[in-house]
Design brief:
Layout: H1 2-25, E1 30-32, E2 49-51, H2 73-78, E3 84-89, H3 96-106, E4 111-117, H4 119-125, H5 139-147, E5 154-158, H6 164-170, E6 174-178, H7 189-194, E7 198-202, H8 210-219
Parallel strand pairs: 3-4, 3-6, 4-5, 6-7
Antiparallel strand pairs: 1-2
Amino acid sequence: MEKFRSRDFLSTLLVDAFIMYIKIKYADTMIFRVPCFRASCRPCYSYSMNLRPDYVLPAVPEYEVKICPPSELAARIAVLPRPLVFTNGCFDILHRGHATYLAQARSLGAALVVAVNSDDSVKRLGKGKKTGERPINPLADRLSLLAALESVSLVTWFDQDTPLQRIIECRPDILVKGGDWSIAQIVGATEVSTWGGSVYSIPFVHQTSTTAVLEKIRSL
Protein backbone atom coordinates (compact mmCIF):
# COMPACT_ATOMS: atom_id res chain seq x y z
CA MET A 1 0.00 0.00 0.00
CA GLU A 2 2.86 2.41 0.86
CA LYS A 3 4.35 1.68 -2.55
CA PHE A 4 1.16 2.76 -4.32
CA ARG A 5 0.81 5.88 -2.14
CA SER A 6 4.38 6.84 -3.00
CA ARG A 7 3.61 6.41 -6.71
CA ASP A 8 0.48 8.56 -6.35
CA PHE A 9 2.48 11.28 -4.60
CA LEU A 10 5.10 11.28 -7.36
CA SER A 11 2.38 11.46 -10.04
CA THR A 12 0.83 14.41 -8.23
CA LEU A 13 4.16 16.25 -8.13
CA LEU A 14 4.69 15.67 -11.84
CA VAL A 15 1.20 16.95 -12.67
CA ASP A 16 1.74 20.02 -10.48
CA ALA A 17 5.09 20.74 -12.13
CA PHE A 18 3.57 20.46 -15.60
CA ILE A 19 0.63 22.73 -14.72
CA MET A 20 3.01 25.31 -13.23
CA TYR A 21 5.05 25.27 -16.45
CA ILE A 22 1.91 25.83 -18.55
CA LYS A 23 0.77 28.64 -16.25
CA ILE A 24 4.09 30.45 -16.60
CA LYS A 25 4.39 29.88 -20.36
CA TYR A 26 0.87 31.08 -21.18
CA ALA A 27 0.29 33.56 -18.35
CA ASP A 28 -0.27 36.45 -20.75
CA THR A 29 -2.90 34.69 -22.83
CA MET A 30 -4.69 32.13 -20.68
CA ILE A 31 -6.97 31.94 -17.63
CA PHE A 32 -6.73 28.81 -15.49
CA ARG A 33 -9.61 27.27 -13.54
CA VAL A 34 -9.16 26.14 -9.93
CA PRO A 35 -8.29 22.42 -9.68
CA CYS A 36 -10.83 20.08 -8.19
CA PHE A 37 -10.25 16.89 -6.20
CA ARG A 38 -12.37 13.78 -6.45
CA ALA A 39 -12.97 11.52 -3.47
CA SER A 40 -10.78 8.59 -4.38
CA CYS A 41 -7.57 6.97 -3.27
CA ARG A 42 -5.73 8.79 -6.06
CA PRO A 43 -5.98 12.58 -6.47
CA CYS A 44 -7.50 13.54 -9.80
CA TYR A 45 -6.88 17.01 -11.18
CA SER A 46 -9.18 18.73 -13.62
CA TYR A 47 -7.78 21.87 -15.20
CA SER A 48 -9.17 23.99 -17.99
CA MET A 49 -7.69 26.89 -19.93
CA ASN A 50 -9.47 29.77 -21.59
CA LEU A 51 -8.24 32.82 -23.44
CA ARG A 52 -7.99 35.90 -21.28
CA PRO A 53 -10.78 38.38 -22.13
CA ASP A 54 -8.17 41.11 -22.70
CA TYR A 55 -6.06 38.98 -25.06
CA VAL A 56 -6.44 39.94 -28.71
CA LEU A 57 -5.84 37.23 -31.29
CA PRO A 58 -3.53 38.35 -34.11
CA ALA A 59 -5.49 39.49 -37.16
CA VAL A 60 -2.98 37.85 -39.51
CA PRO A 61 -1.26 34.50 -38.87
CA GLU A 62 2.49 34.80 -38.32
CA TYR A 63 3.29 32.66 -41.34
CA GLU A 64 1.84 35.28 -43.68
CA VAL A 65 4.93 37.44 -43.13
CA LYS A 66 6.53 35.04 -45.63
CA ILE A 67 4.34 36.47 -48.41
CA CYS A 68 6.52 38.92 -50.31
CA PRO A 69 5.36 41.41 -52.98
CA PRO A 70 7.66 41.43 -56.04
CA SER A 71 8.63 45.04 -55.26
CA GLU A 72 10.18 43.92 -51.94
CA LEU A 73 11.78 40.75 -53.24
CA ALA A 74 15.38 41.99 -53.56
CA ALA A 75 15.51 43.22 -49.96
CA ARG A 76 13.88 40.07 -48.56
CA ILE A 77 16.12 37.75 -50.57
CA ALA A 78 19.23 39.52 -49.28
CA VAL A 79 18.65 38.30 -45.71
CA LEU A 80 17.84 34.67 -46.57
CA PRO A 81 20.56 32.06 -45.97
CA ARG A 82 22.34 30.48 -48.92
CA PRO A 83 22.32 28.23 -50.85
CA LEU A 84 18.96 29.53 -52.07
CA VAL A 85 16.48 27.21 -53.80
CA PHE A 86 13.87 28.55 -56.23
CA THR A 87 10.81 26.89 -57.69
CA ASN A 88 7.52 28.03 -59.19
CA GLY A 89 4.05 26.84 -60.12
CA CYS A 90 0.30 27.42 -59.90
CA PHE A 91 -0.29 25.36 -56.72
CA ASP A 92 -4.02 25.73 -57.31
CA ILE A 93 -5.39 23.07 -54.96
CA LEU A 94 -2.59 22.24 -52.54
CA HIS A 95 -2.17 18.47 -52.10
CA ARG A 96 0.27 15.90 -50.74
CA GLY A 97 2.29 15.86 -53.95
CA HIS A 98 2.90 19.60 -53.63
CA ALA A 99 3.90 19.36 -49.97
CA THR A 100 6.30 16.49 -50.60
CA TYR A 101 7.86 18.16 -53.64
CA LEU A 102 8.43 21.43 -51.77
CA ALA A 103 9.97 19.63 -48.78
CA GLN A 104 12.36 17.82 -51.15
CA ALA A 105 13.24 21.09 -52.89
CA ARG A 106 13.93 22.79 -49.56
CA SER A 107 16.28 19.96 -48.52
CA LEU A 108 18.60 20.90 -51.39
CA GLY A 109 19.52 24.25 -49.81
CA ALA A 110 19.20 26.53 -46.80
CA ALA A 111 16.09 28.46 -47.92
CA LEU A 112 13.28 27.98 -50.44
CA VAL A 113 11.58 30.71 -52.47
CA VAL A 114 8.35 29.82 -54.29
CA ALA A 115 7.04 32.03 -57.10
CA VAL A 116 3.34 31.56 -57.88
CA ASN A 117 1.48 32.26 -61.12
CA SER A 118 -1.00 35.12 -60.71
CA ASP A 119 -4.66 34.44 -61.53
CA ASP A 120 -4.28 35.94 -65.01
CA SER A 121 -1.11 33.94 -65.61
CA VAL A 122 -2.91 30.71 -64.68
CA LYS A 123 -5.81 31.55 -67.01
CA ARG A 124 -3.42 32.05 -69.92
CA LEU A 125 -2.03 28.55 -69.35
CA GLY A 126 -5.47 27.22 -70.34
CA LYS A 127 -5.65 24.56 -67.64
CA GLY A 128 -8.95 22.84 -66.95
CA LYS A 129 -11.70 21.42 -69.12
CA LYS A 130 -13.37 24.80 -69.62
CA THR A 131 -11.78 28.11 -70.60
CA GLY A 132 -11.26 30.31 -67.56
CA GLU A 133 -12.03 27.47 -65.13
CA ARG A 134 -8.72 27.78 -63.34
CA PRO A 135 -7.49 28.84 -60.92
CA ILE A 136 -9.99 27.41 -58.45
CA ASN A 137 -8.32 29.26 -55.57
CA PRO A 138 -7.40 32.94 -56.04
CA LEU A 139 -3.81 34.12 -55.71
CA ALA A 140 -4.18 35.41 -52.13
CA ASP A 141 -5.40 32.00 -50.91
CA ARG A 142 -2.68 30.10 -52.79
CA LEU A 143 0.03 32.37 -51.37
CA SER A 144 -1.26 31.97 -47.82
CA LEU A 145 -1.41 28.17 -47.95
CA LEU A 146 2.11 27.95 -49.35
CA ALA A 147 3.42 30.35 -46.70
CA ALA A 148 1.95 28.07 -44.01
CA LEU A 149 4.26 25.24 -45.08
CA GLU A 150 7.38 24.84 -42.95
CA SER A 151 9.50 24.09 -46.02
CA VAL A 152 8.75 27.47 -47.65
CA SER A 153 10.94 30.41 -46.61
CA LEU A 154 9.40 33.06 -48.86
CA VAL A 155 6.56 33.12 -51.37
CA THR A 156 6.02 35.70 -54.11
CA TRP A 157 4.20 35.86 -57.45
CA PHE A 158 4.52 36.78 -61.11
CA ASP A 159 2.01 37.94 -63.71
CA GLN A 160 4.04 36.98 -66.78
CA ASP A 161 3.77 33.65 -68.59
CA THR A 162 7.05 32.47 -67.04
CA PRO A 163 8.91 33.20 -63.78
CA LEU A 164 12.12 34.24 -65.56
CA GLN A 165 12.08 37.79 -64.18
CA ARG A 166 11.73 36.51 -60.60
CA ILE A 167 14.54 34.02 -61.17
CA ILE A 168 16.87 36.78 -62.36
CA GLU A 169 15.90 38.95 -59.38
CA CYS A 170 16.53 36.13 -56.88
CA ARG A 171 19.67 34.70 -58.50
CA PRO A 172 19.09 31.30 -56.85
CA ASP A 173 21.90 28.82 -56.33
CA ILE A 174 19.52 25.97 -57.11
CA LEU A 175 16.58 25.94 -59.54
CA VAL A 176 14.02 23.16 -59.16
CA LYS A 177 10.96 21.88 -61.04
CA GLY A 178 8.84 18.74 -60.84
CA GLY A 179 9.60 15.52 -62.65
CA ASP A 180 7.30 16.35 -65.56
CA TRP A 181 9.88 18.94 -66.65
CA SER A 182 13.18 17.93 -68.26
CA ILE A 183 16.21 20.05 -67.43
CA ALA A 184 16.20 21.46 -70.98
CA GLN A 185 12.57 22.61 -70.56
CA ILE A 186 12.99 24.39 -67.23
CA VAL A 187 12.65 28.16 -67.59
CA GLY A 188 15.74 29.89 -66.19
CA ALA A 189 17.99 26.84 -66.41
CA THR A 190 20.40 28.58 -68.80
CA GLU A 191 20.59 31.72 -66.65
CA VAL A 192 21.14 29.83 -63.39
CA SER A 193 23.84 27.70 -64.99
CA THR A 194 25.70 30.79 -66.24
CA TRP A 195 26.22 32.08 -62.68
CA GLY A 196 27.32 28.66 -61.44
CA GLY A 197 24.03 27.38 -60.05
CA SER A 198 22.47 23.92 -60.29
CA VAL A 199 19.21 22.80 -61.89
CA TYR A 200 17.16 19.78 -60.77
CA SER A 201 14.07 17.98 -61.98
CA ILE A 202 12.63 16.14 -58.96
CA PRO A 203 10.70 12.92 -59.73
CA PHE A 204 7.17 12.75 -58.33
CA VAL A 205 6.70 10.57 -55.25
CA HIS A 206 2.90 10.85 -55.21
CA GLN A 207 1.01 10.75 -58.50
CA THR A 208 -1.44 13.49 -57.60
CA SER A 209 -2.50 16.68 -59.37
CA THR A 210 -5.07 19.46 -59.13
CA THR A 211 -6.63 18.22 -62.37
CA ALA A 212 -7.01 14.70 -60.94
CA VAL A 213 -8.54 16.08 -57.74
CA LEU A 214 -11.11 18.09 -59.72
CA GLU A 215 -12.00 15.10 -61.91
CA LYS A 216 -12.56 12.95 -58.82
CA ILE A 217 -14.83 15.61 -57.29
CA ARG A 218 -16.88 15.82 -60.50
CA SER A 219 -17.29 12.04 -60.58
CA LEU A 220 -18.84 11.86 -57.12
